[in-house]
Each structure stands twice: as structure tokens, then as C-alpha cells.
């Protein structure tokens, strides 16, 4: 298996962005129009200057974000800021908002360069724009990293054009005018608002202009606490998600799915009966099941439950967790032996191999679900000559291309609208519901509002593949000579490519070879051991394409980091060192070290705790951010066995302290929100949340089966510290909170119970805490006793 | 088709629909009141939490035919009208603490929070950590700590 090829020259040419130095002069455009439209090439990037550190692992030199950002450099397409006559600015963001707060941070970035209040900046989500090629993928925590500069350039150009128009109107020189809060003022006190200038600043022919961006020291909006711009809509019930849309005649639609994963429908045996049910308007068989359209979703549920369907079994029929574990074990490759490592070349002089000791560890991570609260859903209106789709989509261009191909329509005849998503956690990189809705709408000849039932979303939705992570650490005395890690995983599906059909097609090559290349590349570009551990080698093997997988929030990192940090604690113990002291000694990254020291101080590392309670500490570095997490866990029986009605309780994380250096922070409030989510994800991944495969299907069918962190498991005490940073460019945030949290909880758990767990979550092999819901019918009926349960 | 009558956010509504359709679908699919969200349909995620006659209930688990014409149903859309001011104090607390991430579960969270404050007041006490621990509304974005802070602030202003 060969690793990914990284073009080093190219990697270095973008090094100033990588090392966090920014430049300020750029070209952009004033675009012809009736009102002022300023534009920048979204592929703008930073120039080359700084050197790269050496000898680094790949992500230090060139990480996933550089791949994503560089992919965008190939295109030359414009994003535009429009000034409206009501004095507002509008911008259609070519990314998906799924809760991560990018519409808010984008409004802040525009407000900053435009000198306009944040509330006057209207950010919407752009429809699929195929001309943007790679540049409409929301993933890899890359949004702010890749859009920060182009958005600023467009906004700054708009501001300059407004100043020029104001100079003519007010009869003064541009450099004597002051723009503030959407108003331009002359020295004599006369002023004019942006709204009044919107038309005057418009041009009839597009022109290229140069602009100088503000210096970081001038920032008044970026870096300040900003509440979400969609918060009011959310708390009043007015925020619109896909299933809230009212598209004419798009009636509720659901699919009856097979009793084994990815089985296929053969025949609906009682079609006449189903068609005669109350509310039902249409029934159609598609490749994934039997669809029904009705007046209400309740009547869809009734119809799905009444369907008698002949099924062809799915590809994992009859298999269970233990069969998949066996397959993974067979796919594992041996870790390198001492003699193969070239220890004499790492600069520590001759090594007496007889004195080298080894710590070998082996961890198993079960399947986990990234099902969001807003299930897979889409509205589709497919006509003979055109189609229109609405859904939360992180790769809308490949969605458009795939649906066009499926329907036999030219790409431009398929209009794809991106709707706010109720969570993603990686789910919305794919467009399963949009494609399915298009097929159903075509089959029925009517618009449909497709919603996956929760049971479908849980059992048949995409998930994080089962994986093993094996680590071999070699040490002598107080020196670590080598740290070797092999991660073996059920295939992670990257067939969305980089958001366009060209790369999606590469990932889609026969026998999965293309996808394997993608997986290896993503792995190599994200994984890093930021310790001075001599020979460091991390590798990935993926196997088995039969499952519905995808990038779950932070992809490989939570598992890989947890395995690594647990071994770091074992190394510390072997050397008679405290976990904090050990990390301080071996960490090679100053930003990570600063985070580590901060959580140790705030979280009072080493404070005395009763037997059965313990602290855990862990670090992570990815997405150009550094972070550390300290948690305290309570594993005493009285806590583990605490009773909450119908709840899985178990060990309680009582405190979490998280420090993050995310470079230039746009919105600290939003960054802390993402870390809070990451902490709760990490707790679930270590302690409670997993999917059980049994006889060809997953057992977990709803939130009473899948134990994501709930109020009874969330830490009562949480402190998140946004670290000051010397980086002048932003890092990624959306996924940056998961890995260190999961690892810290695992380390704390191991210390509290005095045993290092070898599988996760730690409760996976406990007796099932629920009675599995039936597979036929595939979805449960809604209860009727709600009036007896009011409180 | 049977005629169903109840009071929704202060206004009498009448809908022609079968008795056994759950109230959630009557609200969302027929009346277009989409604040209460679907998250499970089996009364475990609590995303649809609303109020009936001032108490928390989950419309996914109630047949519309079981409602009385005099039953008052309040959804997130009608919550503000039950208090003075443009927003209910609990909604304001949610804004002050910037609780929402994706926002999908938050209407249900707020409706549960208001009901919880009322419940403990009926019991002559104030909210404890144990009460907060027992809130069943799931938030897959993991906003739990901010929810707890907001409930405490909202309760102070209710």
C-alpha cells in the first residue's frame, strides 16, 4: 500500500498561510449591475514566504485544509457582496450551515471590512453553483480557512466603491471621508448612508480594482463575542429546515425499508390495500424500498407499517459485530519490527536493542452513528424537462450532477437549493435523501417532501465504520524511540469527492481503489503525533465496502488520538512520570503545550480526588488548531448506578476544561459552542454511544436505543478557554473539539477504574439496555398515551 | 372525515382529519405550524414538546381525536404571547446565553424548560441540578451546559 503523494513544492508555496502570516493587498472586482456589487475570486490565497518546519509529519507541512484550500485555487470564480438600497449588504455563502455558526462568522467578516453593523449583513446559503467546482464543499472544518480572505476582499472593495460614490456626492476627497456603521461622513458633518449610495456606486462595466484589507490591529468586529444571527428565528420556531418548507403539492413521503441493511425490494404484495389507506395519494417502488406519499407523515407511517413487501436480503445478511471484528483483524497489517525502523538514523547515537522496551496496545472501536436530530430529508419536484431540489447539502454540486445523471437531464436543468440543516456531524456530506426524493418524485410524477423516519436514519443512515487501532511504542530509559500506529477500519465512504463529480468519480472507481486513495490521503493529511517520539509512523488500512459510512465529525481523529493518548499515559507510567509531566517533556509544539499548561492550571491537575474518581488529560492538533482537554470522571458505584428513569447512566464526567488555539478567532462565542459540542461527542464516543450489528442489521432505532450524551451525562462543570494566538489567519473549529475530549475521557476512565479499556464505547458489551424494535415493519408506531404523560 | 376542534396558540382551529392522526402531524402538515419538530415520533427525543393547558406534552404521542374543543395547545410560536414583552423570558435567556447551534431541538427545549419552572413552582421549590439532569430533550449538537445556564436565568425572570 503506498501513501499519498504530496507535491512538496506546492506545499511550500502556500506556506505563509500555513504558518499563519497574512498579507493585505489583493485584487477584486466591481461587477456591472444596477446596484453596487463587489466581488472577489473565491480562490484567492496567500502568497509564499515562510519556511516550513522540519522534519515534520505530513500534516505539519501540508494538512487536509491545505488540500481543500488548494483544490479551490484551481477555479477562478466570484463570490459577491451586494449593497442594497435599504442599507443592508447581502451575501450568498457557498457553504452549508448545519449549526456550526458560519453564517454568523461570515456576517462578522463582511461587517468588519464594510464598516456595517453585523445585523445589517444578510447571509444566505447559495444554491448549487457548478462553476465553483471544488469550492462548494463544506467539510474538514475548512469554511473559514478558505473563505476568510475572499469574503474580506469583496467587502473591502464594496466599501471603497461606496467611499468613491460618497466623495462625488459630498464633493470631498475619499481620504477625508470616514465610513462608520453604514454611514459615510465628511469633515463638515454632512453624511450619506450606504443605502443611498447603493445605486450611485453601481457600474455598467465590470472593472478590476486593488484593495488593501484592514490590519488585524484595526479589527472591531472580528474577535468580539457575537451571538448567532439566526438565534432569534431558532427560539421562536421560525428557523426553516427542510421538512418545514412549504413547496406547493410536495406532500409528506416516507420509504418502507428492508429488514436487512441495504436489502432490495422485490415486490409490494398489497399495493391496492396501501393505496386505499386514509390520506395516501401515491405508492412507488424505488431501488431502496417502497415509497408512499400521503396527506400527513402520520399516514405515511401507517402505510409503511401496513406494507407487505418481498425483499432480497442485503449484503451483510446474517452477520453480526463479531463477524465484522474478525474481518477487520484479517485486514490488519503487521506493525514494523524494531530492526526495520532504522533507529540508528534518528540522531540519538547507537541504540542497544537489548535495552529497548515495547508497549503494545490494541483497541477496538465499534460502529457509531452520526444521525442528526433533523433526519435525512429533501423536497423534490421532478418534471419531464427540469427538476428542483431542496435539502441541507454539504456537497450541492455533486448532488446536482448525480441527480441530473439519474434523471437524464442536463445539469443546468436541475436546480439545487441548500437549506439550513438541523445538525450534520458529517451526515450531509452525502445527499442520500435528495437523490432518493428525486427518484420518488420522478416515479410518482409529483412533488414530494421526503423524510426518513428516525428508525431509518439510525439503522440505514451513514455511520462511522468499526475500526481497530494498534500502537507499538518503543522506549529505553526516559526516551521514546518509536511510536507506530496502524488504524484498520471499515471503509469510510468519500464518494462525494471534493464536492464535484470529477473527484467523486475518482473516489468511485471500480473495486474501491479510488476511494482507498482518498481515504489514505485524508488520513495522512489529518493524523499527526505532536510529540518527540523518534520514529513516528501512522498508517491506515480500510476494508469492506458493504456498509453505509461517511465522515463522522472529525473522521479518524477521535479514535486514533484516543488510542495514542492511552499509550502516552502507559509510557508515562512505565517511565515513572505523571501524565502531565510526561506530555510537557515530550510535546514538540509550543501551541499545544500552551493549551496543555492552561487546562492543567484551570482544571487543577493533580488535585486529590476520592477513590473511583480520576482526572484525564489529552491533547490534539489538527485543522491548524491546537487544543488540550482535562476531564474529571466519577466511576464510583453510587454514581455509576444512579437512577434516571429509562436512561443509561454509568460513569459521569463531572468536569471538563478545554483550551483551544484556533489562530485568529472570528467569533469566540461560536468557537466555544463548537468545543462544547465536541466535549459531549467525546463523552458519548468513550462511554455510551455505539451501534450493535446483529443478524444483518443494526439494532439501534431511536434515541432511546442510541445513547448520545444527555443531560444526565453531561458535565455539570465546563470551562472552555480560547487561547491567545500568534497566528493571524483562522484555523478550523467545527470538528476540533472531539478528539482531545474523547481521549481525555478515556484516559480519565482508565485511571479511575485502574484498567485500560481495549474497546469503545466502554459499555458496548454490557447487556443491551433496550429491547430492539422490530425490523418488520421497519418503523415503530407512534404512541397514543401522551395525554397521560403531561407534566 | 371527522372535524377536529381545539384552541391553538389562543385561537380556535377546526381541521378535517381522521381521529388517529397524531397532533404533531396536524400541526405541521395540515396547519403549517412547524415550531414543534419531528425527531423520533415515539416520544423519546422530545423535540416536539409543546404545552397542553399549561403543561408539557408531546404531540407525536397524542391522537387529535383525543383533544377536547376546550383544550389549549401552545407551541413555541405562541409562547411569547403567554408572557409580557416581545419574547418569553425563557426565549430571551436562550438568546442571552446564545444556546442554539443548529437550533432544531431548541423549540422543544424551551417549551420543556418553561414547563419545568412551572412544575417546580407548583411543588413550592426551585430548580435543582437533579431536575436539570432529568430533562429528556436530546440535543445532538451538545448544547447542554448552555441550556442549563439559560434555564436558571429564564426562571429568575419568569
From TrEMBL, chain A:
This is Isoquinoline 1-oxidoreductase. InterPro entries: Ald_Oxase/Xan_DH_a/b, AldOxase/xan_DH_MoCoBD1, AldOxase/xan_DH_MoCoBD2, AldOxase/xan_DH_Mopterin-bd_sf, N-heterocyclic_Hydroxylase, OxRdtase_Mopterin-bd_su_IorB, TAT_signal. It comes from Thermocrispum agreste. It comes from the Bacteria. Coiled coil: none annotated. One of its GO terms (molecular function) is oxidoreductase activity. Residues 236-315 form the Aldehyde oxidase/xanthine dehydrogenase a/b hammerhead domain. SMART domains: Ald_Xan_dh_C. Gene3D superfamilies: Aldehyde oxidase/xanthine dehydrogenase, a/b hammerhead, Aldehyde oxidase/xanthine dehydrogenase, molybdopterin binding domain. PROSITE patterns: TAT.
From TrEMBL, chain B:
Residues 7-54 form the 2Fe-2S ferredoxin-type domain. Pfam families: Fer2, Fer2_2. Residues 75-152 form the [2Fe-2S]-binding domain. InterPro entries: 2Fe-2S-bd, 2Fe-2S-bd_dom_sf, 2Fe-2S_ferredoxin-like_sf, 2Fe-2S_ferredoxin-type, Aldehyde_Oxdr_Iron-Sulfur, Beta-grasp_dom_sf. GO terms for molecular function: 2 iron, 2 sulfur cluster binding; metal ion binding; oxidoreductase activity, acting on the aldehyde or oxo group of donors. Gene3D superfamilies: 3.10.20.30, [2Fe-2S]-binding domain (1.10.150.120). This is (2Fe-2S)-binding protein.
Amino acid at each position: 500500500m503506498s501513501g499519498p503523494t504530496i507535491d512538496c513544492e506546492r506545499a511550500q508555496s502556500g506556506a505563509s498561510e500555513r504558518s499563519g502570516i497574512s498579507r493585505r493587498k489583493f485584487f477584486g472586482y466591481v461587477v456591472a449591475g444596477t446596484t453596487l456589487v463587489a466581488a472577489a475570486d473565491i480562490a484567492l490565497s496567500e502568497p509564499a514566504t515562510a519556511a516550513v518546519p522540519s522534519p515534520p509529519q505530513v500534516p505539519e507541512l501540508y494538512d487536509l485544509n491545505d488540500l481543500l484550500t488548494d483544490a479551490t485555487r484551481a477555479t477562478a470564480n466570484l463570490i459577491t457582496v451586494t449593497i442594497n438600497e435599504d442599507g443592508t449588504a447581502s451575501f450568498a455563502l457557498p457553504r452549508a450551515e448545519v449549526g456550526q455558526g458560519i453564517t454568523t462568522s461570515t456576517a462578522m467578516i463582511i461587517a468588519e471590512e464594510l464598516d456595517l453593523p453585523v445585523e445589517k449583513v444578510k447571509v444566505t446559503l447559495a444554491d448549487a453553483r457548478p462553476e465553483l467546482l471544488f469550492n462548494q464543499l463544506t467539510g474538514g472544518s475548512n469554511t473559514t480557512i478558505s473563505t476568510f480572505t475572499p469574503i474580506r476582499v469583496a467587502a473591502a472593495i464594496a466599501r471603497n466603491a461606496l467611499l468613491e460614490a460618497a466623495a462625488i456626492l459630498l464633493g470631498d476627497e475619499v481620504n477625508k471621508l470616514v465610513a462608520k456603521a453604514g454611514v459615510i461622513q465628511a469633515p463638515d458633518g454632512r453624511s450619506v448612508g450606504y443605502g443611498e449610495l447603493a445605486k450611485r456606486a453601481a457600474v455598467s462595466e465590470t472593472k478590476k480594482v486593488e484593495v488593501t484589507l484592514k490590519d488585524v490591529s484595526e479589527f472591531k468586529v472580528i474577535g468580539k463575542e457575537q451571538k448567532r444571527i439566526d438565534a432569534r428565528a431558532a427560539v421562536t420556531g421560525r428557523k426553516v429546515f427542510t421538512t418545514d418548507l412549504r413547496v406547493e403539492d410536495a406532500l409528506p413521503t416516507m420509504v418502507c425499508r428492508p429488514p436487512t441493511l441495504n436489502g432490495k425490494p422485490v415486490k409490494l404484495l398489497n399495493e391496492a390495500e396501501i393505496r386505499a389507506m386514509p390520506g395516501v395519494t401515491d405508492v412507488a417502488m424505488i431501488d431502496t424500498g417502497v415509497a408512499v406519499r400521503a396527506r400527513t407523515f402520520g399516514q405515511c407511517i401507517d402505510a409503511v407499517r401496513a406494507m407487505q413487501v418481498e425483499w432480497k436480503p442485503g449484503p451483510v445478511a446474517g452477520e453480526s459485530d463479531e463477524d465484522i471484528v474478525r474481518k477487520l483483524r484479517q485486514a490488519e497489517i503487521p506493525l514494523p519490527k524494531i530492526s526495520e525502523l532504522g533507529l540508528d538514523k534518528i540522531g540519538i547515537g547507537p541504540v542497544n536493542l537489548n535495552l529497548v522496551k515495547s508497549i503494545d496496545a490494541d483497541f477496538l472501536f465499534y460502529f457509531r452513528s452520526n444521525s442528526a436530530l433533523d433526519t435525512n430529508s429533501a423536497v423534490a419536484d421532478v418534471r419531464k424537462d427540469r427538476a428542483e431540489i431542496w435539502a441541507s447539502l454539504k456537497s450541492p454540486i455533486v448532488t446536482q450532477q448525480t441527480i441530473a445523471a439519474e434523471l437524464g437531464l442536463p445539469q443546468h436543468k436541475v436546480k439545487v437549493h441548500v437549506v439550513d440543516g438541523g445538525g450534520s456531524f458529517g451526515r450531509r456530506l452525502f445527499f442520500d435523501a435528495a437523490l432518493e426524493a428525486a427518484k420518488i418524485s420522478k416515479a410518482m410524477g409529483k412533488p414530494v417532501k421526503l423524510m426518513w423516519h428516525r428508525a431509518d436514519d439510525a439503522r440505514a443512515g451513514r455511520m462511522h465504520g468499526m475500526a481497530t487501532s494498534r500502537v507499538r511504542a518503543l522506549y529505553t530509559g526516559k526516551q521514546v524511540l518509536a511510536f507506530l500506529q496502524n488504524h484498520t477500519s471499515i471503509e469510510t465512504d468519500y464518494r462525494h469527492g471534493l464536492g464535484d463529480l470529477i473527484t467523486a468519480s475518482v473516489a468511485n472507481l471500480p473495486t474501491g481503489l479510488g476511494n482507498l486513495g482518498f481515504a489514505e490521503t485524508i488520513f495522512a493529511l489529518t493524523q499527526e503525533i505532536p510529540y518527540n517520539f523518534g520514529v513516528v509512523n501512522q498508517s491506515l488500512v480500510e476494508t469492506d465496502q458493504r456498509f453505509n459510512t461517511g465522515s463522522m465529525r472529525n473522521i479518524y481523529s477521535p479514535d486514533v488520538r484516543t488510542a495514542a493518548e492511552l499509550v502516552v499515559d502507559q509510557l508515562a507510567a512505565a517511565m515513572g512520570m505523571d501524565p502531565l509531566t510526561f506530555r510537557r517533556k515530550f510535546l514538540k509544539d509550543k501551541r499545544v503545550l500552551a493549551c496543555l499548561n492552561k487546562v492543567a492550571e484551570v482544571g487543577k491537575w493533580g488535585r486529590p480526588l476520592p477513590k473511583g474518581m480520576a482526572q484525564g488529560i489529552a491533547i490534539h492538533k489538527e485543522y491548524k488548531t491546537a487544543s488540550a482537554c482535562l476531564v474529571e470522571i466519577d466511576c464510583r458505584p453510587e454514581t455509576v448506578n444512579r437512577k434516571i428513569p429509562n436512561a443509561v447512566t454509568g460513569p459521569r464526567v463531572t468536569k471538563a476544561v478545554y483550551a483551544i488555539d484556533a489562530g485568529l478567532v472570528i467569533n469566540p462565542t461560536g468557537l466555544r459552542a463548537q468545543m462544547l459540542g465536541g466535549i459531549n461527542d467525546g463523552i458519548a464516543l468513550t462511554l455510551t454511544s455505539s451501534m450493535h450489528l446483529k443478524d444483518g442489521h443494526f439494532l439501534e432505532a431511536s434515541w432511546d436505543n442510541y445513547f448520545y450524551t444527555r443531560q444526565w451525562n453531561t458535565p455539570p462543570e465546563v470551562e472552555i478557554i480560547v487561547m491567545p494566538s500568534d497566528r493571524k489567519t483562522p484555523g478550523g473549529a467545527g470538528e476540533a473539539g472531539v478528539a482531545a475530549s474523547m481521549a481525555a475521557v478515556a484516559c480519565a476512565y482508565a485511571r479511575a477504574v485502574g484498567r485500560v479499556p481495549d474497546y469503545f464505547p466502554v459499555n458496548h458489551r454490557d447487556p443491551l439496555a433496550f429491547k430492539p424494535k422490530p425490523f418488520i415493519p421497519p418503523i415503530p408506531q407512534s404512541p397514543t398515551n401522551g395525554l397521560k404523560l403531561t407534566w | 372525515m371527522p372535524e377536529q376542534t381545539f384552541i391553538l396558540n389562543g385561537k380556535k382551529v377546526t381541521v378535517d382529519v381522521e381521529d388517529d392522526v397524531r397532533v404533531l402531524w396536524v400541526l405541521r402538515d395540515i396547519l403549517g405550524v412547524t415550531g414543534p419538530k419531528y425527531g423520533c415520533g415515539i416520544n423519546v427525543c422530545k423535540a416536539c414538546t409543546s404545552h397542553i393547558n399549561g403543561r408539557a406534552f408531546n404531540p407525536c404521542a397524542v391522537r387529535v381525536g383525543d383533544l377536547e374543543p376546550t383544550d389549549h395547545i401552545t407551541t413555541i410560536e405562541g409562547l411569547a404571547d403567554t408572557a409580557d414583552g416581545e419574547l418569553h423570558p425563557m426565549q430571551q435567556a436562550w438568546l442571552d446565553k446564545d444556546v442554539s447551534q443548529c437550533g432544531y431541538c431548541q423549540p422543544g427545549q424551551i417549551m420543556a424548560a418553561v414547563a419545568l419552572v412551572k412544575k417546580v413552582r407548583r411543588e413550592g421549590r426551585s430548580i435543582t441540578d437533579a431536575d436539570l439532569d432529568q430533562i429528556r430533550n436530546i440535543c445532538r449538537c451538545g448544547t447542554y451546559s448552555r441550556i442549563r445556564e439559560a434555564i436558571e436565568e429564564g426562571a429568575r425572570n419568569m
